[in-house]
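Morning F.,

Quick status update on the modeling queue. The single chain you submitted on Monday has been processed. Sequence for confirmation:
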Amino acid sequence: MAAYPQDPGTPDPSYLAFWRERHLCTLTTPRPDGTPHVVPVGVTYDPEARLARVITNKASTKAGNVLAAGPGGAPVAVCQVDGRRWATLEGRAYVRTEPDRIAEAERRYAERYERVPAPNPSRVVIEIELTRAMGRG
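Structure tokens below.
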């Protein structure tokens, strides 16, 4: 896995394999005052669509921070670490409420984390339109 930025749409095989392993991740969103809000999350990576997805409750602070950024989305990063290996994806985040987008995010979450998320009528998905990928293997 390379230590330099990569195209998130065409990751090297070891980078993609690392994102398919089960790891807890972090999501960093900007608060309205500009300070970073960092929380643990489950993340799925879809290089073909150039998206990372995080399922969450619509009332969560992370969703609120993304919404507060306005229609242009919020600059965010997701990261995972395993010993000396790490991987970060960066991009613009948007809160999506469409049932088909939520269902796709839930499906991908269940695949990566080997458990179906509990039903949540308040669920939304934070979709991150990826602009950068970096890491070290």
